[in-house]
Amino acid sequence: MSDAALAGHLAKVAGDILLSVRGSGAFSGKALGKAGDETANQFLVHAIKSQRPDDGLLSEESKDTAERLAHKRVWIIDPVDGTREYGEARSDWAVHVGLSIDGVAEIGAVALPGCDGGVVLRTDNPAPVPAYDGPPRLVVSRTRPAKEAVAVSEALKGELVPMGSAGAKAMAIVRGEAEIYLHSGGQYEWDSCAPAAVAKAYGLHCSRIDGSPLRYNQTDTYLPDLLICKPEWADKVLSLVSELSD
């Protein structure tokens, strides 16, 4: 099985497991989020170590070690991206299974188990991003919209679209539900590795908000900001962000 096929399969199965945990009725609220995180993480970690024993691994839900730094290939996973949304039985949460090769998010899958009967977007079967000719739509946090995103939206006379997890936001651009995902409020490698790999495969712009590349499998896993957008918006957004920082 190819790396992309493996990522897609594991993201789909982890999503099904999470729906089963939620559907069991045994947990609710924060306890549901904790149970989902632990159960999906256990599955993903064991599966990756079984299928790709020579690769490194970084998971939000497992203790990090320096061992992964010796590997060129490192799987970077987030078993439940958007734990709050998962616990609230919303649809805007995701499962991230990404593969960083030499520090670049190359391969991955993002599952959206709560959307349309379950959706998995993968790097190996991209489709054209739907066209849209209206004012740009910017996906932002439901609770803490990034000040840069708000300012850029105002400058572009755009529309803010509140949404949950980072994966759901990034895949909203892939699915043609928005044009720009600008985030500056703090994230880690597992929040963006798989989404960035998928977005890049679909022909979208992916970078830090200063235009520099997103780099993975670093000693410090803090990766606080990113821009994922349709290519035609990239230069304008990066220019506006630069003006805001001056």
TrEMBL record:
GO terms for molecular function: 3'(2'),5'-bisphosphate nucleotidase activity; metal ion binding. It holds the Pfam family Inositol_P. Keywords: Magnesium, Metal-binding. Its cofactor is Mg(2+). GO terms for biological process: 3'-phosphoadenosine 5'-phosphosulfate metabolic process; sulfate assimilation. Gene3D superfamilies: 3.40.190.80, Fructose-1,6-Bisphosphatase, subunit A, domain 1. The keyword Oxidoreductase does not apply. The keyword Ribonucleoprotein does not apply. InterPro entries: CysQ/Inositol_MonoPase, Inositol_monophosphatase-like. Mg(2+) binds at residues 60, 78, 81, 191. This is 3'(2'),5'-bisphosphate nucleotidase CysQ. The lineage of its organism: Bacteria, Pseudomonadati, Pseudomonadota, Alphaproteobacteria, Sphingomonadales.
